[in-house]
Amino acid sequence: MFYGHPKQLAIQAGAALTIIIWDGVVTFLILRGIGLFMKLRIPDADLEIGDVAVHGEEVYPSEDLIRVGASHASAVDRAPHPAERAPGEGREPERVPREE
Asked: pTM of the predicted model, to two decimals?
């Protein structure tokens, strides 16, 4: 554009726009295909709770969410924290360093 090649800039802008549109169409088609076999969104009640409802834990714990998570996580689903285990119970295997 600054050195006398505005046509090249227009060609590159058109190519970028083509890729953006192509990606949008293909993503839409993939999601529609997946949507035929499963739901793409979790229920609103679980969405409000977030990671606690889906995974049984949260990324950034806060006192409010810990109370909410405790009421929704069952004792079977929740793995005990290492501090809650009896001595020798649920011991993790030793990690062997990987050779590179």
From this structure: 0.47
CA 75 vs CA 1, 57, 69, 70, 80: distances in Å: 65, 13, 12, 9, 9
Tokens 């090249």, located at residue:
8
**Residue 38 identity:** M
| Contact between residue 85 and residue 93 where contact means Cβ atoms under 8 Å apart | no
Closest CA to 77 of 46, 53, 94: 53
Cα gap 32→93, rounded to integer Å: 43
The answer to whether the CB of 73 falls within 8 A of the CB of 52 is: yes
pLDDT at 67 over 80: no
Type of residue numbered 83: A
CA-wise closest residue to 15 among 23, 25, 3, 27: 23
Task: List pLDDT tens digits, range 24-48.
Answer: 999 999 999 999 999 888 888 877 7
pLDDT surpassing 70 at residue 73? no
